[in-house]
Design a protein that fits this description.
about 450 residues, 2 strands, single chain, 20 helices, globular, two-stranded parallel ribbon, mainly alpha
């Protein structure tokens, strides 16, 4: 049975007024998404489907309205385009640092019911004041302690926690290898249906402490996979909600990690001052309560933020501190499992980003080459990032052909990645070499990108 759809005449009228074709509008929607740190696969075919009356993802609809607003020079809202305004999700309102644990768990449960593309408003991140309030609350907080059990019919054991940690490792491996787009939806379902109910069950103090620590670990992975798919509003809310979870059992090292993740996201979106503040809160909040390996991670993220801000002196200091912390790290026995990836290769990858952003091509190439050499292939996304940064660094040094060849190898190796961040790295490099489109190596690189995109669309 076929379903008759009414053509979207409102959208057609606005497109006609703007004088844009299906292909032209698709390109503008992609440009808006890219500027906002997201990736959408909008093509002229998708635009035609919208004109024919098919639905559209809320996030893409926001980009569509902005694209037409920019073209017309006036505000165009979703109603003008014959599209419904996205429903306000009560579960995400006030999703900052909840004062009470039950409220925090309610917020978290509500977030897991948002599908990919939902939870995206006009702003990509929570307001500055809301974030600053959450950070201050965490820094001065006292642990909640474990509340009395609500469900006496189920007793949580260490075996349950071990299963949760095993699942977290599995989802983390999926994320590193194929990008956040492969695992976010099943992880969200698992967290809501299998993890959150454990927090309301019966457990001993010993089990409760490791249970909340493992829950926070998986919750931050939910945030990270949302971030990697380009849903920054949802990721930001997951991060704040996870920060609140770390207060329950005073897990300061995980809390500091959440702040460093928030810094990473703000830095990616070009909000350097915010990224610097969050990174410094991470370093200060983790001091005395984190392993040297964790402190190396936090300092490296501070260096990344300071590099984006153009602070050579501050970034150099933070890089030296990160190196010193990693030199003091032991065999890893004292570290939590989620820190296993933080090694010399990871640090070299962070540093090559720093020197690239500081415009220091020679150092950037040296660290990028080291990162590519040392990175385990199982971290496919990280390896793809490092190869693109190596290409950008070679370009800084004026070696166009080597840069294009290196970027091409990153595309070939990362064509299975469902990661909007990786895709943005590729498009950023494309823009950097656009004025050299007549060069043979650049033409071959662009052809490899087109092939990868065609293969991805055909999957």
């Amino acid at each position: 049975m076929t379903v008759d759809r009414e053509p979207n005449r409102a959208l057609a009228a606005v497109m006609a007024e703007a004088g844009v074709s299906n292909k032209g509008l698709a390109r503008r929607v992609q440009d808006v998404a890219r500027r906002r740190g997201a990736h959408v696969g909008t093509t002229h075919v998708a635009v035609q489907r919208w004109l024919d009356g098919s639905g559209i993802q809320p996030q893409t609809a926001t980009f569509l309205a902005q694209a037409l607003s920019e073209k017309l020079g006036r505000r165009v809202n979703l109603a003008d385009l014959g599209l419904p305004e996205p429903a306000v999700q009560a579960s995400t309102q006030g999703a900052s640092y909840a004062p009470l644990l039950p409220e925090a768990l309610t917020v978290m449960e509500g977030l897991t019911r948002l599908r990919s593309g939902e939870g995206e408003g006009d702003e990509l991140l929570l307001p500055e004041g809301e974030v600053n309030s959450a950070v201050l609350s965490w820094l001065v907080s006292r642990p909640d302690g474990l509340a009395a059990p609500r469900c006496l019919s189920r007793r949580v054991t260490m075996r349950d926690v071990a299963a949760l940690r095993t699942a977290a490792r599995m989802f983390m491996h999926l994320d590193f290898t194929f990008g956040g787009g492969h695992g976010h939806r099943p992880l969200r379902h698992y967290f809501r249906e299998d993890v959150l109910p454990l927090l309301n069950a019966d457990y001993s103090d010993k089990v409760g402490r490791v249970l909340f620590a493992a829950t926070a670990e998986m919750s931050q992975l939910l945030a990270w996979t949302a971030y990697d798919t380009g849903n920054h509003a949802l990721a930001d809310r997951y991060l704040i909600a996870t920060l609140r979870l770390t207060q329950v059992v005073d897990d300061r090292m995980m809390g500091a990690r959440i702040l460093s993740n928030m810094s990473h996201q703000a830095n990616y979106l070009g909000q350097a001052p915010r990224a610097v503040r969050l990174a410094r809160a991470s370093v200060e909040g983790g001091k005395g309560r984190s392993t040297p390996r964790a402190m190396a991670l936090f300092s490296a993220h501070e260096a990344r933020a300071l590099s984006t801000a153009g602070d050579l002196r501050g970034a150099t200091r933070a890089m030296h501190e990160a190196e010193g912390h990693l030199d003091r790290a032991g065999t890893g026995d004292e570290d939590p499992g989620w820190l296993a990836y933080m090694d010399e290769a990871e640090l070299a990858g962070e540093f090559c980003h720093c020197f690239r952003d500081l415009g220091r091509g020679r150092e950037a190439v040296r660290f990028a080459e080291r990162a590519v050499e040392l990175t385990d292939p199982k971290y496919a996304r990280t390896l793809g990032f490092c190869r693109i940064v190596l290409a950008q660094s070679l370009l800084l040094n004026g070696d166009l052909e080597a840069a294009a060849l290196t970027a091409g190898s990153a595309v070939d190796g990362g064509d299975a990645l469902q990661s909007s961040r990786f895709q943005r790295y590729v498009t950023d490099f494309q823009r950097a070499v656009a004025r050299h489109e007549g060069n043979r190596a650049v033409r071959e690189f662009n052809a490899r990108v087109r092939r990868a995109m065609t293969e991805a669309d055909g999957e």
